[in-house]
From TrEMBL:
Keyword Transferase: yes
Organism: Varanus komodoensis (Komodo dragon)
Keyword Transcription regulation: no
InterPro entries named in the record: CoA-transferase_III_domain (IPR050483), CoA-Trfase_fam_III (IPR003673), CoA-Trfase_III_dom_1_sf (IPR023606)
PANTHER family noted in UniProt: SUCCINATE--HYDROXYMETHYLGLUTARATE COA-TRANSFERASE
Entry GO terms, CC: mitochondrion
Protein name: Succinyl-CoA:glutarate-CoA transferase
MF GO annotations: succinate-hydroxymethylglutarate CoA-transferase activity
Record lineage: Eukaryota, Metazoa, Chordata, Craniata, Vertebrata
Family: Belongs to the CoA-transferase III family.
């Protein structure tokens, strides 16, 4: 999707009939379309091909020969059984940047296990450190391990394309959920690797910075972070607790971490005295990082979210106008592509076979009749 935002022609290969599994993930649905599917499939064309049929596999090989990048997320070895593994594709398309996305990687003791976000988040330790202090593990509200892996793959594809520009040769890349999430453990991992410090769940708080968490107000929550002593002094001033910043127990972050319970108790009691909007006004212009915990309604009416053009609207062929989160990055030298709506299953099958691969009408009709491909017919 990110590559499509930048102008790449993206061809999504789906199985005839059901298509991508996420098409059935719901409710909610808009008409018959899964909102989950709609959220991550803009700027893609859909071709419906039975790859288990040799004629279908032939179509994929022909597409690889004229494309720059081949992205797949099968359990290792499955595509090779169809003659579509990296070794097979690189023989006919030595330029290809072939990106494999799996749960555990291409080799190793667990490489043939299926991988889903929540399982990978558990195995890689994310669920061990996410949730309320002393409470049950909590899955993040969105699939952060999936998203991180997609973003790593996006960067890897860009790097491989630059390398190919220099050498003329493609390559195979192993992107997987476990590696992505373990890499994202950052300082939590480093704490253990260097100090043998086992982490735990902190709720909204931070293991190494105090205060850095959500505080309950009269009517909601506010998140405040003091990353240095000056910011802490400012927080104390705003809370009308200037004496706290002078207390030897809280004079620097190391002491504040050691005396976390007492300090958080004092701050929490004061935050309960006012409503969230009152605290937001007091913190405005202070230089201290702060913000409310917003609902989705509040997020998409936030003036900064609107200013950053993070609501992207487009016309879907069957359900009309839809809206999704827009691209996270803006560029000074060009605009991202005008968005095209997520495709219907096989919406572009015939068009791709004709225009990209030069298939004749009678050949296409034979493939349609035999069920090797399907074409969605718009009403």
């Amino acid at each position: 999707m990110n590559l499509g935002d930048l102008g790449a022609e993206v061809i999504k290969v789906e199985k005839p009939g059901a298509g991508d599994d996420t098409r059935s993930w719901g409710p909610p649905f808009v008409g018959t379309e899964s909102v989950y599917f709609l959220s991550v499939n803009r700027n893609k064309k859909s071709i419906a091909v039975n790859m288990k049929n040799p004629k279908g596999a032939k179509i994929i090989k022909e597409l690889a020969a004229v494309c720059d990048v081949f992205v797949e997320n099968y359990v290792p070895g499955k595509l090779a059984e169809m003659g579509l593994g990296y070794e097979d594709i690189s023989k006919i398309a030595p330029h290809i940047v072939y990106c494999s996305i799996t749960g555990y990687g291409q080799t190793g003791p667990k490489f043939q296990r299926a991988g889903y976000d929540s399982v990978a988040a558990a195995v890689s330790g994310l669920l061990h450190i996410t949730g309320p202090e002393g409470g049950e593990p909590v899955r993040p509200g969105v699939a952060m391990t999936d998203l991180a892996t997609g973003l790593y793959a996006y960067g890897a594809i860009m790097a491989a394309l630059l390398q190919r520009y220099k050498t003329g040769k493609g390559m195979h890349m192993d992107c997987n959920l476990i590696s992505s999430q373990v890499a994202c453990l950052t300082y939590i991992a480093s704490n253990f690797l260097n100090c043998k410090t086992e982490s735990k769940r902190w709720g909204t708080a931070h293991a190494s910075i105090v205060p850095y968490q959500a505080f309950k107000t009269k009517d909601g929550y506010i998140v405040v972070g003091a990353g240095n002593d000056q910011q802490f002094a400012t927080v104390c001033k705003i809370l009308s607790l200037p004496e706290i910043s002078q207390d030897s127990r809280y004079k620097n972050n190391q002491q504040r971490v050691l005396n976390r319970k007492e300090l958080v108790g004092i701050l929490s009691a004061r935050f309960l005295e006012k409503e969230t909007t009152e605290w937001l006004e007091l913190f405005e212009g202070s230089g201290v990082p702060y913000g409310p915990i917003n609902s989705m309604k509040q997020v998409f009416s936030d003036p900064q979210v609107l200013h950053n053009r993070l609501i992207m609207e487009m016309e879907h062929p069957t359900v009309g106008k839809i809206a999704v989160p827009g691209p996270a990055v803006r560029y000074s030298q060009f605009q991202v592509s005008e968005p095209r709506p997520p495709p219907l299953i096989g919406q572009h099958t015939v068009d791709i076979l004709k225009k990209t691969l030069g298939y004749k009408d009678d050949t296409i009709q034979e493939l349609l009749s035999s069920g090797v491909i399907t074409q969605h017919k718009l009403m």
